[in-house]
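re: ur question from earlier - yeah i can do the single chain one, its not a big deal. heres the input i used so u can compare w yours
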Amino acid sequence: MKKMRKLPPQARLALLVALLVAAACSLLVWSPERLLSQGFTSVIPGIWAGPAFAVVFALSTLAFFPKPVLNVAAGAVFGIPEGLALAVIGTTLGAVLAFRLGRSLGREALQPLLKRKVLAALDRRLTDQGFGSVLLLRIVPGVPFQGVNFAAAFSGVRPWSFTTATALGVLPGTAAYVIAGATASSPASPAFLLSIAAIVTMMVFTLAIVRRARPKATPPNAVEPV
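and the output i got, formated as tokens:
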């Protein structure tokens, strides 16, 4: 990492982009969902299965693989208590990995952009209210996972605040998907039905946020009143 710091900021930013593109393209070669759900515990038995699952989970998030699918796999493979713990650990580990990459490779190069009015306000809020801001962004459904990771990395959020807020903020949404994965074999069970209801509610809430955030189009033939 010290050698990386000797590179010019723009070179480090280019390296960050290259790493993320390579991680995303790696999904053409391997499927995290298939690896995690089909015989994972038989390939890595014993006490190493859980830690290995969390590591694969974290690397999958870095490759932009859909996190809800990973959460469902955690529940299907390990059940509710252990699956939830591993999913939260994997999510937090993946977020910290992205945060560290963004902080060390991209922040310095993007500092000039943070002087613009909107970005400066976002940077100031994340810096001054790091824990609360990250916690809120994690709890609200539909906010891009990696978007929060890199927005925090490019701002002045303290690493410990980012890590703690991530672990707490992802807990409710992660629990819904893990429970759904663990109880999918019993679709009539109350736990499965409640988890599906929670997931649908989160989706509806996300769509409502997107619709409110979408700018209203001006009618083409609208005439301003005199």
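The mean pLDDT is 84. not sure if urs matches, ping me
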